[in-house]
Amino acid sequence: PKRCVAVPAGRCEAILHAIGNALARLESLRSGDHVVAERNVLRCDQQLEGGAADQPLGEQCHYVGHSNAVKAGLTVAENANFWTRFLGRGHTGVGAALDVFGLSGLRDIPAGYLSAGQKRRLGLARLILTARKVWLLDEPTASLDAAAQDALTGAVNAHLASGGIVVAATHAPLDFANSRELHLGPVAQAA
Q1: pLDDT in tens, 53-91
Q2: Which is the most buried residue in 19, 41, 42, 179, by most CB within 10 A?
Q3: What one-character DSSP code corresponds to residue 51?
């Protein structure tokens, strides 16, 4: 049986789970099969109310999973430029997106030299490079220090304030505005 989740515009659905449980759930949410209709929400028939009628749901979503989709041989700026060209419909300039995640000083460094947290921030920067109504995030705070988590929270909150939708799978609580939590199992407790 399908479990449907309604996520109105301007809201975040944080899917809290025991470690290892949410990837399949987030993958199924990305397909649109488990999300029901409400004003400006994802629908099971893969339409986005308030979205572009001529675009499939997948083209109106950003998905950031465990892989940061960073090419080691490209510089930070080249990676960001690639995602802007690939995803189309530029929203924020590369410089501004790198600024949000504290990567401006690293723009000419090959991504292969970045730390895990820096690679994660570069992967997250594509969220604001091009406008997409829905952000699907799998463990978005993985490898992020406190300052980078604050930057992510600011980006998510700005997206929500503009009517965006966020669905985040995580084993740790998130500090995003307008969030509610859906528990899929025991939440991992910090030691």
Answers
A1: 777 777 888 989 888 999 999 999 999 999 999 988 667
A2: 42
A3: S
Edge-first strand order for the sheet with 12-16 is: 61-64, 134-138, 165-170, 12-16, 179-183
CA distances, 144 to each of 79, 91, 117, 123, 140 (Å): 19, 24, 5, 12, 8
Residue 138 in tokens:
């799998």
Q: Are 68 and 144 in contact (CB under 8 A)?
A: no
The model's pTM is: 0.81
56 in Cβ contact with 46 (< 8 Å): yes
**CB atoms closer than 10 angstroms to residue 32:** 19
Q: From residue 87, give the alpha-carbon distance in Å to each of 81, 110, 131, 152.
A: 10, 21, 9, 20
Number of H helices, E strands in the chain: 5, 5
Residue 102 and residue 179: Cα distance in Å, rounded? Answer: 25
Report in angstroms the alpha-carbon separations of 134 from 24, 30, 69, 76, 162.
18, 10, 18, 24, 11
Is residue 183 within 8 A of residue 30, CB to CB? The reply is no
DSSP letters spanning 93-129: -HHHHHHHTT-GGGTTSBGGGS-HHHHHHHHHHHHHH
Q: Give the whole-angstrom CA distance, residue 33 versus residue 46.
A: 7
Q: Which residues of the chain have pLDDT under 50?
A: 1-2, 20-25, 30-45, 186-188, 190-191
